[in-house]
Design a protein that fits this description.
Shape: globular
Low-confidence stretches: 15-25, 267-277, 414-427
Structural class: alpha/beta
Signal peptide: 1-24
Strand order of the largest sheet: 3-4-8-10-9-11-12-13-14-15-16
Order of helices and strands: HEEEEEEEEEEHHEHEHHEHHHHHEHEEHH
Family: Belongs to the type-B carboxylesterase/lipase family.
EC number: 3.1.1.-
Mean pLDDT: 81
Number of helices: 14
Radius of gyration: 24 Å
Number of strands: 16
CATH architecture of the domain at 2-310: 3-Layer(aba) Sandwich
Largest sheet: 11 strands, mixed
Pfam family, one: COesterase
CATH superfamily of the domain at 2-310: Alpha/Beta hydrolase fold, catalytic domain
Helix content: 25-40%
Organism: Leptidea sinapis
Oligomer: single chain
Length: 487
């Protein structure tokens, strides 16, 4: 018995030595997934821990040719070893900061980072969906160095953007939501393969920021994503926000088609062989759509209780709306133009062109200016805070699993020195984070205003929602089937 135990320990020691030698000699980590073998590379975390990084893993067939404007398709198995040591192209997009077109249509790739690449490690998994108004961004922009100091697996991903990801003719020709379907397809890939990277497929936390946060909310509402994740965190995004849902999807598709010279009398006749760049977002697909992601208005789904009943954290920051506000601030000519033509531009800035009749837009623009004159965070309230607050309260009322919310207001001045001095334990003992109470007019949330200032707060008018609700936008609780005929 003792001899057997000794031999077992020696074998474990030998395995450990071989692993150390493999790392020391630069042998790259290799994993077999459902479609073949992939090889990544070793990296170092913030604190110097070695972890395996696999970048540019294909999770679906390239959405080109006959697969353009279609749901993602299964990959074919590959022979040999897939090189997962390089970042592959972002999805085709107009990059607003560089003001140029970047990326490629062949872009459905994801990245996996793990400190323990071994079956049975059962590490919790975090899947992050990037933001960018459903128009720009990429999974490769977000690194895992800090996370890899902990025992967890991190996944980031690309999904189709702009018209290639969200153009909808509101019929079977192009029902839309391809970007969200890509995300759901990637979640299925994670479910099937993540154990090969040391991850636990039954402990997946879905997270995302801005458009990624709204995407998290959409996955709570879609039957396509049921049972593909176990909890979620929606950073600064909700499917209730006007900028995350397209009311006039077919009208926008035809307008764009006319601009680029496509016929618009029959959506089946439109020539899709062009590159198109404009704002397109999720929308409800026709009920007869095969494998639809969403067939109902998000507010109706949420208030009916048709969401996945798993825990949820929602968040906002104190500086929501800095983009696009910062763009206006940097251009004095634009500021002058906004001031002189406020009534005209307000409906675009505050996203109510599609949800308010033309006859009411001037009066609403005046009310917004009067309410927020003096530098109050108008864009943040309209585009983020009010909707995230409503998401928290509705989810708390309809789900059995807990809902939490926090507002992040701390802006570190010496974050690098804090890191170097080891002061990364920024928490306040004995601060209890309370759940959002169901069926309560008050929204309870955690206010994070500094490393030593974290406290529970409560508001019955988070994001000045009463003001925004009073303006009569035909959205969320005021939305109805005939809205398009009124606008």
């Amino acid at each position: 018995m003792r001899t057997d135990l000794t031999m077992f320990c020696l074998r474990l020691l030998l395995i450990g030595v071989l692993l150390e030698l493999a790392v020391a000699e630069g042998l790259n980590p290799t994993v077999r997934v459902h479609h073949g073998i992939i090889q990544g590379k070793w990296k170092l975390s913030t604190k110097g821990r070695e972890y395996a990084s696999f970048e540019g893993i294909p999770y679906a067939r390239p959405p080109i040719g006959k697969y353009r404007f279609r749901e993602p398709q299964q990959m074919k198995p590959w022979s040999g070893t897939w090189d997962a040591t390089r970042v592959l192209p972002d999805c085709l997009q107009y990059e607003p900061f560089a003001q140029k077109i970047v990326g490629d249509e062949d872009c459905l790739y994801l990245n996996v980072h793990s400190p323990r690449v071994q079956i049975g490690a059962n590490l919790p998994v975090l899947v992050f969906i990037h933001g960018g108004a459903f128009m720009y961004g990429a999974g490769s922009l977000y690194k895992a160095d800090h996370f890899m100091d902990r025992d967890m697996v991190v996944v980031t991903l690309n999904y189709r953007l702009g018209p290639l990801g969200f153009l909808s003719t509101e019929d079977e020709a192009s029902p839309g939501n391809y970007g969200l379907k890509d995300q759901s397809f990637a979640l299925q890939w994670v479910k099937q393969n993540i154990k090969m990277f040391g991850g636990d497929p039954d402990s997946v936390t879905l997270t995302g920021c801005s458009a990624g946060g709204a995407s998290v909310h959409y996955h709570y509402l879609s039957p396509m994503s049921k049972d593909k994740f176990n909890r979620g965190i929606a950073f600064s995004g909700a499917a209730f926000a006007s900028w995350t849902y397209s009311v006039k999807a077919a009208q926008k598709a035809k307008a764009l088609a006319a601009i680029v010279g496509c016929p618009t009398t029959d959506s089946r006749e439109m020539d899709w062989k062009v590159h198109m760049f404009t704002l397109f977002t999720p929308t409800a697909e026709p009920r007869a759509t095969k494998n639809a992601f969403l067939t109902q208005y998000p507010w109706d789904l949420a208030t009916s209780g048709a969401m996945h009943d798993v825990p949820l954290i929602t968040t906002v920051t104190s500086e929501e709306g800095l983009y696009p506000a910062s763009v206006y601030q940097q251009d004095t000519n634009m500021l002058d133009e906004l001031e002189s033509r406020w009534d005209h531009f307000a409906s675009n800035i505050f996203e109510y062109n599609d949800t308010l009749p033309i006859s009411l837009r001037t009066s609403v623009a005046t009310k917004i200016k009067q309410q927020y004159l003096g530098g109050k965070p108008a864009l943040g309230d309209r585009l983020f805070s009010t909707h995230v607050g409503k998401l928290a309260q509705i989810h708390a009322a309809k789900a059995k699993q807990p809902t939490y919310m926090y507002r992040y207001a701390y802006r570190s001045q010496w974050s690098l020195s804090h890191l170097m001095s080891g002061k990364e334990d920024n928490f306040v003992p004995n601060t209890k984070w309370l759940q959002v109470k169901p069926d309560s007019p008050d929204l309870d949330y955690l206010e994070i205003d500094g490393p030593n200032k974290i406290e529970m707060r409560s508001s019955d008018d988070f994001g000045y929602k009463r003001f925004w609700d009073s303006l009569g936008f035909i959205e969320n609780e005021n939305y109805h089937a005939n809205v398009k005929d009124e606008l």
